[in-house]
Amino acid sequence: MTRARTLRFYIGKRFLMMMVGALVVCMALIFMIDMVELLRQSRSAATVTVWQLMWIGFLRMHAFTEILIPFAVLVGSIGALMSLSRKSELAVMRAGGMSVWQFLRPGITVALLVGIVSVAVYNPLATRATELAIEQMTTHFGNETSFNNSGSGNWLRQDGADGPSVISARAVGEQGLALAGVTVFQYDPAGRFIAHIRADKAALADGYWELSRAAVAQAGKETVRYDTYKLKTNLDRERALDALGSANTVSIFELPGVIAMAERNRLPAARFQIQYELLRSRPLLLVAMVLLAATVSLRSFRQGGIQTMVATGIIGGVGFFLLTEVSRQIGLAGLAPAFVAIWLPVVIACLGSITLLLHQEDG
Known about the structure:
It is a single chain. This protein is α+β, with helices and mostly antiparallel strands and 363 residues long. The protein has a domain at 147-235. The protein has 10 helices and 6 strands. The chain has helices spanning 2-41, 50-86, 89-95, 100-141, 147-150, 237-244, 255-264, 270-295, 306-332, 338-362; strands at residues 154-158, 165-173, 178-187, 193-204, 208-218, 224-232. Helix 2 packs parallel to helix 8.
């Protein structure tokens, strides 16, 4: 019993080390690529330092890392199993009477634990880091980024006591209640353009947006700057959430409340439901990655074809991720319930991998 426990611990440790190693490599690549973009943007900010850019890049990195966790688990599992096979450890285990399910059990357990920790601990930290990155970007880059040329702004048309207006924001925080890098095109009740407003930040209050460090340019007049400027709106918190809220900035513990609030006010909640199911399904998704890795990594090195096996595993993982993205878009379009759109591809991957392993193990 003690020897079996020691062996399971050894195998689980190999899986964990390989998964963490793959994830660290992914994080390093994300950080370097994002730093190139931040250095490009820093040309428009005279006061930002390299250390501040690195801090912003570190904060922004975590949102992308969450997306790559399943891929890191897949690559790490392939690496762990191939390492065991290269040293003939798998052959010895099989000769000792261990089945594929027995030496995969530690890897599956590690994947489950990694999934639970990534959802319960890392996800809230990542969403908070994203909000801090938005604040840092606003502080150091202000309103100098070109919104119209970026092609990635958040746009909103609203009405107010002073007439309608169109708001563009470079970044959205606090589920749509806070904006950064704000541009406003204001019109009178008759629909005639009257003012162009640029502000560093905007916060939704009761019946108005409070703009910070705003520059108001009216036709035929010089630009006037205000530390605080109020723009009237008929939006409330629920409708701002529907218009501007991003599911990626809401942690798993906040999502049920956000979904309930949206449904209570008869607002679309599909993107929040999809995000919630994505997070809930992550532990099983990581188990599916271990099983998928096992289907292409159990061949002995003496039989050759190792490069083909690795390439097959990577291609299969990419194909699976494409399938999950198509299914996610189907759920966002309302063509399938969120639960079905997210969980069905994961269950299919698990069952398909188990079937292949049964065929390889028992013929």
